[in-house]
Amino acid sequence: MTKHLRSLFTSDSFSRRRFLMDSAAIAVGASSLIGSSGAWAATLKTVRFSEAVHNLGYINLYVGMHAGIFKKNGLDMQVVAAGGDTQTFAAVLGGSADFAIGDATMAQISRENGGPGVVVGTVVQRAHYFGVSKTLQPITDPKAFKGLKIVTSPEPNTNYSVAKRLLEKAGLKVGVDATIVPVNPGTEIAAMLAGQADIAIAYQPSVAAAEAQGAKVVFDFSSYIGPFCNTGIMVLPSTIQKDPEMVQALVTSFEEASRKTYADPAFAKQVARKEFPDLPGDVVDKAIDAELKFLIPAQSVVTKQDQWKNLMEMQVYLGNAKGSIPFDQIIDNSFADKAVASLK
Predict the structure, then answer these.
(1) Residue 281: which of 290, 273, 289 has the closest Cα?
(2) Is the pTM higher than 0.90?
């Protein structure tokens, strides 16, 4: 897995052609979202923003957009779901996105291989994954995963990484003692319900939707792992140098949105219902309750050292990263610190 993941960021495999293909695909998606913005359009700074997948772990982003926080700070957010952690960072590297949110390990790996990448904030502060099953009882000891088929997104997505580490830390060998079944991001629950696995490692609102269909949460990764930079805001140093005001406005907006999410859960639920209109309202409400109960969305955009330490320990353990870039060289908290100070 290590060679596969690292090779994505080398000049041979992560080629200009790959960048251009990813950039073109995301640009096409973005074009569908760029419409009339009324009087705001003439004064707002357009921000091309890539999210790994559309999910309620990113509720702070959606709250900020629906509350008009980004616009208040001068930004017109053009958000596109890239389809995974690697794809979202590829959009930044390829120039089709100014910022990306996803597994911040992507920036770390890029730096370790001589490429660019800086993390300017945290969006998800704990592992926002739950083990969901229709057949299993709650699991308190990870050794109980022995003999199970576990469905996740494919590597190097974070739910694959947390599942693999959990198994190996419990002394279980993947492919021998337990099997990981990779599926497209966002389809984990459907695969489990279809009988492809005993348990799905998934995120909200899919988890709440599964519970509405008779499944139940049998394992909580947020409590198991603790503080964890599950999702970071990634940007290129060249973007920071070119337009620090835009970076500051974006980070400040996330700080405001993070605070509003926790201060006004009712509004967060309204936003979540709009973002996921195909799901029953009570299912979405339950998903937000779970997100806030387990402190999954970041309470502040500042990236804390324990959050980053736990992420890096996992990725180094799995061989995905070397952990050779010091915290203060990969994490730039200067914008987050200014945001916090400005909002006191």
Answers:
(1) 273
(2) no
